[in-house]
TrEMBL record:
Pfam families: Branch (PF02485)
GO molecular function, one term: glycosyltransferase activity
Keywords of this entry: Glycoprotein, Glycosyltransferase, Membrane, Transferase, Transmembrane, Transmembrane helix
Keyword Hydrolase tagged: no
Coiled coil: none
Protein name per Swiss-Prot or TrEMBL: Uncharacterized protein
Transmembrane region(s): 25-47
Intracellular or extracellular location(s): Membrane
GO-annotated cellular components: membrane
Its membrane topology: Single-pass type II membrane protein
Organism: Hevea brasiliensis (Para rubber tree)
Length: 298
């Protein structure tokens, strides 16, 4: 509706401009024209934004369809979401993120990216270091930040962290909400089809090598990386709960910190899982979930 309201005065002014008008009135109309154009442009972008975000498409006026939606355009599917904010809850997000193409060969030149997923409470004190790390490697990485919902990062538009916060929820370190946050990060990162590798980092992580080396290492590796120790004693096997059988046996029980690097296939496996998730949710109390604030070192 805003589009109509905004455009109308713009059109009328063109018609009556020919007649001699008092200067003040003309100025007034010009102001209106500019305002109208502004509103039109804003609403155009709003609709385009919704067109990308809402693949299923909610009932929209037909007037906008030809201009702003090209459903047959491959570009719509491979372009990363222009805005990381969305209104999907976790159920909807995970479902959407679990879409996987069955044909393995991409019909375009795909440059695989590394998704750096920052699981933080609030500010990123090492942001300047990361800025330097990423500098000059645009197109090979994407960044996602999950912080406490109350924290509004004030990054400048030139920062690599600008507008990279995903819709977040409260995380209690060492509880299931921590796993939820990790899965939420993965799911949001999966929405960009170019992301091929997913790295979970904290605000305390420091890259030990430059970007080129890390990118080359990860892209050439056949493996994903995560901590996994089979340990006797109270902090290892001692934390196993027999209720986790048969899905998780004692022999399969591992300990490790949560920081990981996984490929896209594994990332989808993690967000689609409904077998192990309930077992860990129901039978892993907070001390069992291996994490404490001290594990924030990577
Ligand atoms: C998300 O919304 C759907 C539909 O309203 C609902 O069925 C589902 O339980 C919600 N999921 C969560 C995690 O709130
Ligand atoms: C990254 O580090 C390697 C080894 O230290 C070096 O040879 C290379 O030039 C560096 N790349 C960049 C872009 O700085």
């Amino acid at each position: 509706m805003a589009l109509e309201d905004g455009k109308e005065p713009g059109i009328t002014i063109r018609l009556i401009q020919n007649r001699p008008l008092p200067l003040r009135l003309l100025q007034f109309f010009l102001l209106f024209l500019v305002l109208g154009l502004g509103v039109s442009i804003i609403s155009m972008y709003t609709f385009r934004y919704f067109g990308i975000q809402n693949v299923t498409g909610v009932g929209r006026s037909n007037i906008f369809l030809p201009c702003f939606e090209a459903p047959n355009d491959l570009e719509n599917w491979i372009r990363p979401p222009s805005n990381l904010l969305h209104k999907m809850n976790d159920t909807e997000l995970f479902w959407r993120a679990s879409f996987v193409p069955r044909i393995k060969e991409y019909p375009y030149r795909r440059v695989p990216k590394i998704a750096f997923m920052f699981l933080t409470k609030g500010p990123l004190p090492l942001a300047p270091l990361w800025e330097r790390f990423f500098k000059g490697h645009e197109g090979l990485y994407s960044i996602y930040v999950h912080s406490l919902p109350s924290y509004a990062g004030n990054y400048t538009p030139s920062s690599v962290f600008y507008k990279r916060q995903i819709p977040s929820q409260v995380v209690e370190w060492g509880r299931m909400s921590m796993c939820d946050a990790e899965r939420r990060l993965l799911a949001n990162a999966l929405l960009d089809i170019s992301n091929e590798w997913f790295i979970l980092v904290s605000e305390a992580c420091i890259p030990l090598h430059n970007f080129s080396i890390i990118y080359r290492y990860i892209s050439r590796s056949r493996y994903s990386f995560m901590g996994s120790f089979d340990e006797d004693g109270p902090y290892g096997r001692g934390r196993y709960n027999w209720n986790m059988q048969p899905e998780v046996t004692l022999a399969q029980w591992r300990k490790g910190s949560q920081w990981f690097e996984v490929n896209r296939r594994l990332a989808v496996n993690i967000i689609e899982d409904t077998t192990y998730y309930p077992k860990f949710r129901d039978f892993c109390s907070q001390h069992v979930m291996w994490m404490s604030t001290t594990s924030l070192r990577c």
